[in-house]
Design brief:
alpha/beta; 157 residues; five-stranded parallel β-sheet; 57% helix; single chain
């Protein structure tokens, strides 16, 4: 049973109907199931995304990142990761277009985020996401003044 205080916190941070772009760290926590952020990642995917409460997107950078561990482990692990992507078929996949690459470069230059992270945030901006959910503690302070139009929600407290 989920911790009610954490449920309220995540529910307060992500209002119903808000579009959400989900960072690789959150997807990996969901798929792994044993990480500190896994319970909240499960809540996000199972209670918010799967129910249609919040439309969700993933950057294609995230798709590439979440397939690395499975490819190292073998075909069964790859099948599990790809089943996850197919299970959430209504989740929008945001390609890395010129617009995303340009915005990623701007973010990298102004925040010093690693390029994969900058591209994921750029994907959120280009897709018009209201909220970006990450387990990375460094994003919120780095992005607060640079992208005030997007709320950064940290998965773990």
């Amino acid at each position: 049973m989920p911790d009610r205080s954490r449920t309220r916190q995540l529910g307060d941070a992500i209002p119903p109907g808000a579009s959400v772009l989900i960072d690789s760290s959150v997807v990996l926590a969901y798929l792994a199931g044993g990480e500190p952020g896994s319970p909240r990642a499960a809540e996000l995917f199972d209670a918010f995304v799967a129910t249609g409460r919040n439309p969700a997107s993933l950057s294609m950078v995230t798709v590439a990142e979440i397939l690395v561990r499975p490819f190292r482990r073998g075909p069964a692990a790859v099948a599990t990761a790809e089943a996850f992507l197919q299970h959430f078929a209504d989740m929008r996949l945001v390609p890395v277009t010129y617009e995303v690459a340009r915005e990623g470069a701007r973010l990298r230059a102004s925040t010093d985020l690693p390029m994969p992270d900058a591209l994921i945030v750029a994907s959120a901006l280009v897709a018009g996401a209201d909220v970006v959910v990450t387990a990375d503690r460094s994003w919120r302070p780095r992005l607060r003044d640079v992208v005030p139009e997007v709320t950064v929600v940290q998965l773990t407290t």
